[in-house]
Amino acid sequence: MADNTNKQTHITLADGTVIPQVGFGTYKLQGQQCYDAVRHAIATGYRHIDTAAVYANEQEVGRAIADAIAAGEITRKDLFVTTKVWNDCHGKQATEKAFHASMQRLGLDYLDCYLVHWPCQGNGLYTETWQTLVNLLGFGTVQTIGVCNFYPAVLDEIIAATDVTPVMNQIELHPGFSQATLRDYHQAHGIVTESWSPLGRGEMIEHPVVAAVAEDTGKTPAQVIIRWHMQLGCVVIPKSATPARIEENFDVFDFELTDGQMARLTALDGDDSAQKRRGPDPATFGVNQ
Ligand SMILES: NC(=O)c1ccc[n+]([C@@H]2O[C@H](COP(=O)([O-])OP(=O)(O)OC[C@H]3O[C@@H](n4cnc5c(N)ncnc54)[C@H](OP(=O)(O)O)[C@@H]3O)[C@@H](O)[C@H]2O)c1
Description:
Mean pLDDT: 96
CATH architecture: Alpha-Beta Barrel
CATH topology: TIM Barrel
Distance between the termini: 41 Å
Strand content: 5-15%
CATH superfamily: NADP-dependent oxidoreductase domain
CATH class: Alpha Beta
Helix content: 25-40%
Number of strands: 10
Bound molecules: NADP nicotinamide-adenine-dinucleotide phosphate
Order of helices and strands: EEEHEHEHEHEHEHEHHEHH
Oligomer: single chain
Number of domains: 1
Strand order of the largest sheet: 3-4-5-6-7-8-9-10
Radius of gyration: 18 Å
């Protein structure tokens, strides 16, 4: 297995926090499979793990981290760990309780990044929830805070209400759904874009344009897509339960897409066969969910 630990790239967030650009997604990983996948990701060199309360795997993620530390593979400070507050825990008291419950399940004494999972506009509590994350920052158990699935109207609102801009917005982004407008907004506000479902839930790997660019580069379709995210300036968190794919997705630091190859992949936004969103629309998702 190629050791890419020291080749990996990092992004500095607006508050100075440094985040490994390629992280490991854990949505749908459960139980022993989750534990094994996270251990394998750490052994492969990933130093950034993305989980969430709603994934119901924080305990396994935490156990994998603890065992990797105990085995001498990493130290806690080598790792960047993100978790998220779910939609049914918005509002000051519920969010504080959710944060402490996540910390307990993860078994960590500090968290690198806490995110609001969805704005959940129907609940009307996203500003209070964001303010609660801002307050949590002051206690020192979380290093940095951000949001997921926020769009300009709700970003404007939370920034105006709290005077604190999220350092990162984790959004659905993949070839076929490159989110140019939202990325421009992020850039103007110093927010780093983090791509979820970066492989389009695995489906974009099959696309003929991706396959053609992969053939040109001699890399695999997944590697080409992950590199596209990196060259857009995004943090990217591919998920896999499969050891060989976990390694493949992290072997992305020794090649570059040309401007032409980048443009071909970005142009899939205009291609019906690339299918746009895989997940729900944040403007309507998450009312009491
Ligand atoms: N904030 C949010 O609202 C939100 C929403 C969704 C996801 N996320 C985060 O983003 C992470 C990634 O998104 P995702 O899990 O939805 O989708 P994804 O990473 O785009 O795709 C995962 C799928 O692709 C397959 N795959 C992975 N690497 C592959 C490779 N090299 N070749 C072929 N197939 C490959 C996986 O299969 P196997 O596992 O079978 O190998 C799995 O079915 C999540 O795990 C989660 O951490 C956040």
